[in-house]
Structures are given as C-alpha cells and as structure tokens.
Amino acid sequence: MNSRPSIVTQLAVACLGAGVITTFAMAQGQNPITALGITVFSAVAAMALGQVL
C-alpha cells in the first residue's frame, strides 16, 4: 500500500499553510492579487516538493 499522501491532500495542506501567511500579509496592507499569486506559487512549490520527497 502507498503511504504517500495524495496530490489533493498535499495541495490542500499547502494552500492552508500559505493561506494563513497570506491572510496576515493582507491584514498588513498587501495587495490581494499579489497575496493570491504568492499563495498559488507556494502551494504549487510545496506540492512539487512533496512529490519529489
């Protein structure tokens, strides 16, 4: 049986983690579009890293 988490699970965890930091950044006055871009990039990078490891 495969013990690695599914891609959907990895993406969900990555988005939650990046979303917390992005929410804090937006509360400090960051542009929402920039914050969304950072969240998407972080989630995809974390998912890609999770597939390699």
Overview of the molecule:
With 53 residues, the chain is an all-alpha fold. The chain is 79% helix and 0% strand. It contains 2 helices and no strands. The protein has helices spanning 7-27, 32-52. Helix 1 packs antiparallel against helix 2. It starts with 6 loop residues before the first helix and ends with a helix. The model has no long low-confidence stretch (mean pLDDT 80).
Short description:
With 53 residues, the chain is mostly helical. The chain is built from two helices and no strands.
Which tags fit this structure?
2 helices; mainly alpha; single chain; 53 residues
From the N-terminal CA to the C-terminal CA, the straight-line distance is 17 Å
Low-confidence stretches: none
Oligomeric state:
single chain
Radius of gyration: 13 Å
Which sheet architecture does the biggest sheet show? Answer: none
How many strand elements? 0
Q: What order do the helices and strands follow? A: HH
Task: Indicate the overall shape.
Answer: elongated
Query: What portion of residues belong to β-strands?
Result: under 5%
Q: Quick check: average pLDDT?
A: 80
Q: Percentage of helical residues?
A: over 70%
Number of helices: 2
- Look at the helices and sheets and give the structural class: mainly alpha
Q: How is the secondary structure organized here?
A:
Elements: H1 7-27, H2 32-52
Helix pairs in contact: 1-2
